[in-house]
């Protein structure tokens, strides 16, 4: 009777272990694939539907800004004057106390004007860079790197390495001494 009980209890224990292992593997793989699936969805939405920063939008232009950059300078100036007229009308409407929908359009109009001015300035700077590409000495101040006052006035590497006649003569006469260290 005790041998039968011992064999039965061992087989029952092995059976329970086997069931536990199956359940563990089932839930482990279920949660593992569930986790991978949610990671995939998160990264998909993060990378494809992420709001672009201004720096990212600068090179890959979208929407109205792309249309602005394709237009000629005359068209841009004409649109700029139209926007400025409309902005002045909106501001007078604000003073008169008209509908809040008109007042809400002031910010968007200012941004439109800023977009056009930005595109005009950037195209002008690009054209100037192309014009002065060969002659670096005559580069206008606006195209030179800003740096700091100290770095702008600092000596160039060629100027630092230059030596006077006396310095070259003295360095030839008295070269730098080399000492051997005894151990």
Describe the structure.
By secondary structure, the chain is mainly α. The chain is 74% helix and 0% strand. The protein has helices at residues 2-48, 54-59, 63-70, 73-96, 100-131, 149-153, 157-161, 165-173. The radius of gyration is 37 Å and the shape is flat. The mean pLDDT is 82.
Q: Secondary-structure map with pairings?
A:
Elements: H1 2-48, H2 54-59, H3 63-70, H4 73-96, H5 100-131, H6 149-153, H7 157-161, H8 165-173
Calculate the mean pLDDT score and round it. 82
The radius of gyration over CA amounts to 37 Å
**What is the makeup of the main sheet?**
none
Structural category? mainly alpha
How many strand units?
0
Tell me the overall shape: flat
Report the helical percentage: over 70%
Q: Could you tell me the strand content as a percent range?
A: under 5%
Distance between the termini: 87 Å
Low-pLDDT runs: none
Order of H and E elements: HHHHHHHH
Question: Tally the helices: what do you get?
Answer: 8
């Amino acid at each position: 009777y005790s041998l039968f009980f011992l064999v039965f209890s061992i087989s029952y224990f092995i059976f329970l272990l086997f069931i536990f292992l199956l359940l563990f593997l089932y839930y482990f793989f279920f949660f593992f694939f569930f986790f991978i699936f949610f990671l995939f969805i998160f990264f998909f939405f993060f990378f494809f539907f992420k709001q672009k920063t201004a720096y990212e939008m600068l090179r890959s232009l979208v929407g109205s800004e792309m249309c602005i950059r394709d237009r000629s300078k005359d068209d841009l100036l004409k649109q700029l004057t139209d926007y400025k007229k409309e902005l002045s009308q909106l501001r007078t409407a604000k003073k008169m106390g008209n509908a809040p929908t008109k007042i809400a359009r002031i910010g968007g109009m200012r941004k439109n004007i800023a977009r056009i001015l930005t595109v005009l300035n950037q195209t002008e700077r690009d054209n100037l860079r192309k014009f002065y590409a060969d002659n670096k000495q005559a580069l206008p101040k606006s195209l030179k790197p800003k740096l700091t006052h100290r770095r702008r006035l600092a000596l160039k590497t060629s100027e630092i390495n230059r030596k006077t006649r006396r310095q070259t003569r003295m360095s030839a006469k008295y070269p730098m001494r080399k000492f051997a260290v005894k151990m």
